[in-house]
Amino acid sequence: MLSRPCLNWSPLASIRSWARERLLKSVRYHHGLHFSSVPLQFGMNPSRVVIELPAAAIAHKTFLGYLTKSYQRYGFKMAGNLPNAGQIMAMSDMARLDFVKMDAGAALRDSVVKHLVAYAHRLKMPLIFSNVSDEAQFNALQQFDVHFVQGPIFDAHPVHGR
C-alpha cells in the first residue's frame, strides 16, 4: 500500500524540531543554569528576578522542590501561587520559597486572611495577596496587618492628553 507524501514536511522544520527537543532535554535537569544566562546578558543579576510558579506546580511537591532548588542555586527568587489557603500548611514540607502568593478575593471570601498571615509569619515567608481589585479589598487586608499586596487597583492609570 502506498502512502501519500507529506506536503508540509520541510528540512528546516525538521531541524527546528530537533533543536527544540535538544534544548528542552538540556534544560530538563538544569533550569536555573540555563535561564540565569538571560538576565546576565542584559547586565542584570538573577537575584533581582522573581520567578512565579503557577498553582499547578505547587501541587507537585517533588517537582516544586527540584525547580525551586535549581533556580535558587543560581540566584533567582521563587514565588509560589497558592491554589487555595490549605496549601500553605504544606509549605513547610516543600521546598523553601522566597514568597507565597494568594488571591486576595478568595482569602477574604473564605475568611482565612488572619490565619494565612499568622502561619506565613511563623514560617518567616513573605505572603503577597494578589488580585486586589478595589479599595474595599485593600482596606480589609490592612485590618489584618498585611504587608504585601498587588493587583489592578495599583496599576498606573494613563493620563489622557487634551
Task: Give a written overview of the molecule.
The chain is α/β, with parallel strands linked by helices and 162 residues long. The chain has a single domain, classed as EAL domain (TIM Barrel), CATH 3.20.20.450. It has 7 helices and 5 strands, in the order H-H-E-H-H-E-E-H-H-E-H-E. The chain has a 5-stranded parallel beta sheet. Helix 7 (135-142) links the parallel strand 4 (127-130) and strand 5. It is globular, with a radius of gyration of 21 Å.
Task: Using brief descriptors, characterize the structure shown.
162 residues, TIM Barrel, alpha/beta, 7 helices, single chain, five-stranded parallel β-sheet
Overall tally of structural domains: 1
Ends distance: 72 Å
Radius of gyration: 21 Å
Report the portion of residues in β strands.
Answer: 5-15%
What's the count of strands?
5
Q: What's the level 1 CATH class?
A: Alpha Beta
| Mean pLDDT, all residues | 78
Strand order in the largest sheet: 1-2-3-4-5
Number of helices: 7
| Main β sheet profile | 5 strands, parallel
The CATH topology corresponds to TIM Barrel
CATH superfamily: EAL domain
- Overall geometric form: globular
Helix content estimate: 40-55%
Pick out the low-confidence regions: 1-20
CATH architecture: Alpha-Beta Barrel
What is the string of helix and strand elements? HHEHHEEHHEHE
Structural class: alpha/beta
